[in-house]
Amino acid sequence: MARRCDDLVHRVTTLYPDQFVGVAQLPQSPDAGLESSFAELRRCVEELGFVGCDLDPDPSGGSWSAPPLTDRSWSPFYETMVALDVPAMVLVSASATKAFHATGAYHLSADTTAFVQLVQGDLFGDLCGLRLVIPHSGGAVPDHWGRYRGLADMLGRSSVAADRGTGGGTTGSPPRDRATSTSPRCRSRPRPRRRGRRAAPPRRGTAPPRDRVAPSSARAYGTPTMPRSGRRPGRTAGDEDAS
After folding, report:
1. pLDDT of residue 52
2. Is 199 left (phi over 0), alpha (psi -120 to 50) or beta?
3. Which of 24, 183, 190, 220 could disulfide-pair with 53, CB 3.0 to 4.6 Å?
4. What domains are there in the chain, each with its CATH number?
């Protein structure tokens, strides 16, 4: 099934090369190994020109029977990704349990779970050049950044945020760029150059004006907003009267 889906994706990218690029779907299933996923990823990247893949951290659909993303059993697949120089988007599929609505609960909770698994482990320190994308803004992470930043401090994982200049404390803003390793083992190793890969098409549309940022997003990322009183942040009524 995954091979047929990937062939269909390749057909679309061939018909509309300026609008779409291919991302591989992997033949993952509960209690099955990743050997078939190795072959499909290599086929899609080397033969079809795909630029990445979807990686399901929970093929069971809600039972979470698979080992965490930082488990050593994932290492051969990650090494294949690094060798091919492609990222993976961590994305679950349909929910197989009535306890989780697929798009309303399962996807968002899975994004949060994947993030916490990465915080608990040292995956990026062991695999240089590994790139993972967590969709949907990381689930609950941006809105509860203080909780997860505190968890990183408690687990001794604060060096990545400190090196990125995100404040260093539990109230700092979440990093908005992709996560990469700060391990000394990886700093001296340059990423391999991409060869013969088509550049991504330009993104359509324009970004929304900065003064229209939603209040929830502003609080999550530390964006200054105008208070309801109409005064600029940091000024008091006495300052306005003096001026």
Report:
1. 96
2. beta
3. 24
4. 2-137 (3.20.20.140)
